[in-house]
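Methods: example folding runs. The two proteins below were folded one after another, and each record is reproduced exactly as written to the output file, sequence line first and structure-token line second.
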Amino acid sequence: MATEVQVEADPAEAGFDGARLRRIDRHFARYVDDGLLPGFLAVVSRHGRIVHVASHGARDVEAGAPVETDTIWRIFSMSKPITSVAAMTFAEEGLIDLTDPIARWLPEFAEPRVYVKGSALDPVTEPATEPIRLWHLLTHTAGLTYGFHHTHPVDARYRAAGYEGGTPPGLDLAGCSRAWAGFPLVFQPGSEWNYSVATDVLGRLVEVLAGTPLDEALAERVFGPLGMSDTGFHTEDRERLAALYVPDPKTKQIVRNDMFGATGTKRPDSFSGGGGLVSTAADYHRFTQMLLRRGELDGVRVLSPHTVDLMTANHLPGNVDLESYGRPLFTEMPYDGFGFGLGFSVLLDAAKAKTLSTPGEYAWGGAASTAFWVDPDEDLTVAFYTQLLPSSSYPIRHQLRQLVYQALVD
């Protein structure tokens, strides 16, 4: 399978103004030239063919190594849609249902308790009024959290146990799942939305359903069928793996961060289905094309069309957006005008979101400022790759939408 992305069709044939598309190149090149990004790669596809590839800068500034079309990137939370797809393959086989309590397979979640009040050291809790179900994990409504949120006493419990920017050394995913089950939930399951380790727990559920470690399960159900040969929880090809950077707090200039950059360089102790994968633009392009084609690519079907339609519908009760149902914390997408499906954000109202796009667009991004979206109405996919933590540093995703849709002229 090809490891590089290349233009496959004239932009005009796909309804784009080529000169306007090149605004993407110029805009983000300024980020690089100003020292705010190390480098980037953007891919725009319509009607199943790539119409624009933009790149500039370095995958490793210190080594003078340029961004290449086969560069390997840490995709962090862009792992979540992949793990979600894998989980739904088991639902399609009748092995699990969206409403099933996960404790049937993960007994550590048999009696969850919910935070009511008190400190991180001495919280008052109450029993959950209903079990955590599969759909709660897929929609981040289980009541789980992330240690890096720094807004709730339960977040502090996660951090104290070693769950802030990763997981404790030597602990596998089964051990992590048991630890997370031992923390109080921040709300009753299904009552709110909170970005969380839910997809990591989902990855553990996939392991149990598959009877294999998560890396093998994803290879069998997603990577192998789609020919995603460069995607996994680490890569041996260190030369192609981009270095990771953070902005200097004072100057905003990029600073190399090899501590976080160690992600993807060796086999991890715990496979993070929520944030542990590395991939290439070519591999993730195949994943998005499978989604756009409603579950099938090159004659290989991963999911049924109906399953993809269900996953990319808004599952927040009452069809509300994240602003109405979510907690005002960090996430990889805005809250206004966006709902959430089974592993994806879903655009409900472009005017409320103040963005150029089409209702029904589904998307997600990663902590190192990577992002993708799929627009079924326009038969469009877009992906952006760089390696800058955190993704909230600059409005890259909003600007990319603006630049793509202003070039779509048919």
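Second run, written to the same file directly after the first:
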Amino acid sequence: MKITIQSAEQLGPLVRAVRKAQGIRQDDAAGSIGVSENFLGKIERGGATVQWGKLFGVLRDLGIHVLVDVPDEIATKVQVARVKGRAG
């Protein structure tokens, strides 16, 4: 299912719902992911100031995939820049 997220306040409850649907307690999830329970709680409350690397680790380990929808004219420029960046 695709859900549009526009803020941390929207992402947090989704992370919590996914974790609960998997039947995983917050402390168990935090331990298995390698973050503190406090950090996971901050994400689930929609905290706006979290570390990106840890956030993406939590999302990945809970099976949440991030898809960014970029306007086509911008996506073309980004793809060209990525290819040039790898080659140079």
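Comment on the second run: The CA atoms of residues 11 and 33 lie 18 Å apart.
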